[in-house]
Amino acid sequence: MYRAPLSDITFVLDELLGPEALAGCRGLEEYSPELAAGVLEEAARFAEGVLEPLNKTGDREGAHWSESGVRTAAGFKGAYRKFVEGGWPQLGADAEYGGQAVPRMLTTAVQEIWASANLAFKLCPMLTHGAAHALSLSGSKAQKALYLPRMVRGEWTGTMVLTEPHAGSDLGLIRTRAVPEGDHYRLFGQKIFITWGEHDYTDNIIHMVLARIEGSPAGTRGISMFIVPKVLVRADGSLGERNDVRCVSIEHKLGIHASPTCVMAFGEGPGATGYLVGEANRGLEYMFIMMNSARLSVGLEGYAVSERALQQALEWARTRVQGRAAGGSAPATIIHHADVKRMLLGMKSSVQAMRAVSLYAACQLDVAAHHTDAARRAAAQARADLLIPIVKGWCTELGIELASTGIQVHGGMGFIEETGAAQMLRDVRITAIYEGTTGIQANDLLGRKIGRDGGAALAALIAEMRAELERLAAAPPAARAARDAALEGVTLLERSANALVAMHSRAPEQAAAVAVPFLMLCGFVLGGWLMARAAATAARRAGGADGEPYRARLASCGVYAAQLLPRALGLERIVSRGGESVAGTPPELI
Amino acid sequence: MYRAPLSDITFVLDELLGPEALAGCRGLEEYSPELAAGVLEEAARFAEGVLEPLNKTGDREGAHWSESGVRTAAGFKGAYRKFVEGGWPQLGADAEYGGQAVPRMLTTAVQEIWASANLAFKLCPMLTHGAAHALSLSGSKAQKALYLPRMVRGEWTGTMVLTEPHAGSDLGLIRTRAVPEGDHYRLFGQKIFITWGEHDYTDNIIHMVLARIEGSPAGTRGISMFIVPKVLVRADGSLGERNDVRCVSIEHKLGIHASPTCVMAFGEGPGATGYLVGEANRGLEYMFIMMNSARLSVGLEGYAVSERALQQALEWARTRVQGRAAGGSAPATIIHHADVKRMLLGMKSSVQAMRAVSLYAACQLDVAAHHTDAARRAAAQARADLLIPIVKGWCTELGIELASTGIQVHGGMGFIEETGAAQMLRDVRITAIYEGTTGIQANDLLGRKIGRDGGAALAALIAEMRAELERLAAAPPAARAARDAALEGVTLLERSANALVAMHSRAPEQAAAVAVPFLMLCGFVLGGWLMARAAATAARRAGGADGEPYRARLASCGVYAAQLLPRALGLERIVSRGGESVAGTPPELI
Q1: Helices and strands: H and E segment counts in chain A
Q2: Cβ atoms of A115 and A302 closer than 8 Å
Q3: Which of A383, A477, B295, B582 is the most exposed place for a label (fewest CB within 10 A)?
Q4: Strand ranges (DSSP E) for B79-176?
Q5: Contacts for B223 with CB less than 8 Å, ≥ 6 apart
Q6: In whole angstroms, what is the distance from residue A271 CA to residue A269 CA?
Q7: pLDDT at A325 exceeding the cut of 80
Q8: CA distance readout (Å), A565 to A302, A362, A524, B131
Q9: Is some CB atom of chain B closer than 8 A to the CB atom of A411?
Q10: What pLDDT score does B316 carry?
Q11: Segment A176-201, tens digit of pLDDT
């Protein structure tokens, strides 16, 4: 039974980052720890009461396709209605269209709670938010006025329609055609992997579709973005005719069974009516602006599922009696066994580190969007750009590992589906794939986020981490181990980054062959930095009767330093010397 | 479509270990590379033609329980009949009971092929072999004569019946009661997780059951082993009455769906008739003698599934067009992308390393069982005892990771069940749990295999590895990197081992908290040693027209050294310094 980890989340928001992180941000002045606490408590209540009970049943039942559409698993439609009635879709959306402007830092924390309680459910509002975001960035005033208010309120949902059977990571291969007709286009083509592309939640679904206008250049420079509503919307906002777009099947997947993954046919008849968003041939660019934000939201899924896996494993370990505790002869619950403790503490400290890094990245997005000082905005944007592929890649890869560890804690029961631990591994496995695989994230990190500025944004982050960790030499002794380990990690990262920047221009294939290990190194070291900061804070408050949460925090910071951060040693070695073995091997020798 | 990797397997058997590894072994004189090749080719034909086509259908259909028994998935019963007709169960069994004595090294290689082609299928013969092995070690002459010939021929199958709902890793908690009645016992109790405990393959199933004779001491010293046939066997070998043992349900599992995992009720009526094996209260001891061998057989499942995952990922990467190759502008298959190459080469080199270590361990079992020199037998037994928990733990943990990597290579298609990549992750996940979790293996390694002799057997292995690697300084330059990396790994292992032996007596909880990382370190370093040896062999033969397989082997040895072995750096750090953070944290702070 999942319980939202409110004290862990508020520790990061209030004590590790602190509301002062948003100082100077215009439009976020109302944010306060009290406001955040209120929102988080309500989110916890909703997640625990409404979403969590549907997690296992949704997995078992899945979504059902028929000619007339997709029926969601029992209870999901009602839960969505309550979600809308509760005003949750508005949280974090643009106030101009009815949204409630709160920091991304807070919506990221709330989204974690949705994703932990019910990952399949969480995806529909996430995609709606993404579609609305893309429209708000690039749509015309009229388009925004027509679609956004109802998308922001969740009365209509939205999708991102990118992939085709032959065009996944490489969207330049998209073939879906758009034929001009008056003020709109007719679209023809098949799209796959469309998350929540069809369902029974709402009257309408607004698809944001990538397609190629006839005569456009080949490759990525010839792709445009279109609004393709499931049901056409009249100028007065009322629903008109059914559009020529149809879900022709849904996938049979490893996990997230309650989330329909749709094959969508556009233009089986006269062509699907679509409305160009922004300028022709700039669709990919628009999509990528939005995608940065979506990738943060997928990254958090990695630790959200891990948090749930940890809670379930902890519950099992606290009640399952097996063997004797060290030095004792009485039967003991398995939480007393050293290896079980190692697994649980490893999970816990990893989740805490991932959450801290992700909320820090979200905070950078807030500063980038709201700060009154343009230079501060630009610096924060550069940092967010750098962090997001790391959050996406590292948190999801580590999340898969931790969900598997959660199974292991259960022993044989972990392999039995009814236990629920296996579902988490099945669910979380997709997170390292959708919204760009880990390889794609690492390419982005290497090519765009480090290669283009010669590593300047990363060097600035490294310098800041180092300076802060050096100041932490003055922290209480209990925090020293976490600080020393973090500093060693920063040194390893710096060495790797320098090696990689040089390699990227000298031997780009070698650099590409170690881009994922480098991304993982970045993640572990960023986690080490923020865990060291957390340890310093916790050490100051660990004494006395109220100190137990801080003592627990100190313990997990210590475990992170001693059990997780050492991976940086191997990753640094792989980055500095491992590329040639891969790059130098021709494909025919594999 | 799985194809048995015969050239990779014979490279290890013939060139890396070589038939000379069995010199001095009485009873294995007939073994030769030609004999092995013949057996392996036949096994490949059977696996590819009969077992492989049932792998996916068996997963989809699963086994079906009803009051009257368990019906296996379509085709499985026929495949098993052919398996028996082909004489496969006899391979490696005791000649006295109709078996064909071949080295364990060869049966290990053959079992890999079964496990790759169809893991669910492979488990039934494996369990039968295990049950027969336990009986042959500890049964009376009459018991052996009555049961073994038909078990060895596969006409009856066997099971290992250990686990109870409250007694998994801790078998001391077993409650199943055995009440004496004349020359036999009546058993009462419920057992769970009984692999192939019931099925429609054969007329009879011979259960080897752990139970507690009334009045026996509590804990592990009061457990006895019983033969409990599904159908009682008359003295003349004919089948008599149905015994009071019944499969009451089968589990709904993450993977290996075609393998029925049974809840078995003993003694719902008058009590299940059981025959004591060996002496009372020594059941656990008998089981553990057999289990060493079973653990090797489970360990190989880790790389067997990885091999299959690799083959499928390779096929996808060779045909899927996406993006452009580095420096080119034409569309390229994804095998040309650096990160995909990294994943594939990492999988391939890991599989090769795991196979080499496992076959080396199997070879030690052969020497331990067959060598004419008692001292050589004892040394080989000590080494096998040391290696087996490493093979079991390391190969299965790494196998899970690699099956997940196989999904990743497929991108979005990997998450779709029809692709088949996801099944491999679901199937292989159990291997790190059954026959003793990784934590149990690490405990065994630390407590029994290192703690008891103060690390002497491990020190002997380390010295041998070091001496051989030092000799390899004379190997061709192409093999140098693999050798240098392996030597560094041995140094890290030595340092860790010394630290751990000291810690084990000084601070046993700390040692226990790093036992799994230590086990993994052992695995990676052993792999590095044998990959360095392989590189030296391959380097000598890589020139010329026939050299391509050797050049490929050299490349994967290089990748292992540069991309896998560096993990030893982090593991060594965790072992030497990571234990206190876990051991020092009381459970209530988790």
Answers
A1: 19, 14
A2: no
A3: A477
A4: 157-161
A5: B171, B172, B174, B210, B211, B212, B216, B281, B283, B284
A6: 6
A7: no
A8: 18, 23, 6, 44
A9: yes
A10: 98
A11: 999 999 999 999 999 999 999 999 99
Could you say which architecture CATH assigns to the domain A6-153?
Orthogonal Bundle (1.10)
Question: Strands, DSSP E only, in A27-79?
Answer: 64-66, 69-71
Mean pLDDT across chain B, nearest whole number? 96
CATH number of B157-281: 2.40.110.20
Q: Which chain A residues are Cβ-neighbours of B426 within 8 angstroms? A: 254, 426
| In the block, residue with structure tokens 């908290």 | B513
Q: Do B425 and A254 touch (CB under 8 A)?
A: yes
C-beta of residue A244 within 8 angstroms of C-beta of residue A226: no
CA A588 to each of CA A511, B313, B542, B558: distance values in angstroms, whole numbers, following the listed order: 21, 14, 15, 16
DSSP string, B187-202: EEEEEEEEET-S-SS-
Tens digits of residue pLDDT in A361-418? 999 999 999 999 999 999 999 999 999 999 999 999 999 999 999 999 999 999 999 9
Q: Which residue has the tokens 């020199």?
A: B373
Mean pLDDT of B566-589: 97
* Cα–Cα separations (whole angstroms), residue A483 to A349, A464, B255, B510: 15, 14, 42, 22
User: Are the CB atoms for A347 and A309 separated by under 8 Å?
Assistant: yes
The Cα B2–Cα A288 span in angstroms is: 39
Q: Report the C-alpha gap between A497 and A503 in whole angstroms.
A: 10
Residue B536: pLDDT band (50, 70, 90) is very high
Residue B180 has pLDDT above 90, yes or no: yes
Kind plus residue range of the DSSP H or E element containing A206? strand A205-213
ipTM, two decimals, is: 0.98
Q: How far apart are CA B29 and CA B26, in angstroms?
A: 7
Report whether pLDDT(B380) > 90. Answer: yes
Query: Which of A254, A311, A401 to mutate: most B Cβ within 10 Å?
Result: A254
Q: What is the pLDDT of residue B58?
A: 98
From residue B284, give the alpha-carbon distance in Å to each of B138, B160, B162: 11, 12, 9
Q: Which of A255, A336, A589 sits opposite B551 (nearest CB)?
A: A589
The CA–CA distances, whole Å, from A396 to A148, A297, B419 equal: 30, 11, 22
Chain A, chain B: beta-carbon pairs less than 8 Å apart: 276
**Six-digit token string for A257:** 């069974």
pLDDT tens digits, one per residue of A330-345: 889 999 999 999 999 9
Task: At B377, give phi and psi (nearest 5°).
Answer: -60, -45
Q: How far apart are CA B328 and CA A436, in angstroms?
A: 22
pLDDT tens digits, residue range A424-436? 999 999 999 999 9
Chain A residues with CB under 8 Å of B250 CB are: none
Nearest chain A residue to B507 by CA: give it: A326
| Rounded Cα gap, residues B226 and B32, in angstroms | 39
Pick the CATH number of A157-280 from 3.40.630.30, 2.40.10.340, 2.40.110.20, 3.30.420.40: 2.40.110.20
**Measured between CB atoms, does A581 come within 8 Å of chain B?**
yes
The CATH class that applies to domain B6-152 reads mainly alpha
Q: Say whether residue A566 is in contact with chain B using an 8 A CB cutoff.
A: yes
pLDDT of residue A126: 97
Average pLDDT score over residue span B156-172: 94
* Residue of A404, A570, A584 lying closest to B567 (CB–CB): A570
Strands A205-213 and A157-161: parallel
Cβ <8 Å between A558 and B341: no
Report helix, strand or coil for B5: coil
Nearest by CB: A322 against B168, B342, B443:
B168
**How many other CB atoms are there within 10 angstroms of residue B354's CB atom?**
29
Query: Given an 8 Å threshold on Cβ–Cβ distance, is B341 in contact with A253?
Result: no
Q: Give the gap in angstroms from C-alpha B184 to the nearest C-alpha of chain A.
A: 31
Instruction: Tell which B residues from 468 to 487 touch A, by Cβ distance under 8 Å.
Output: 481
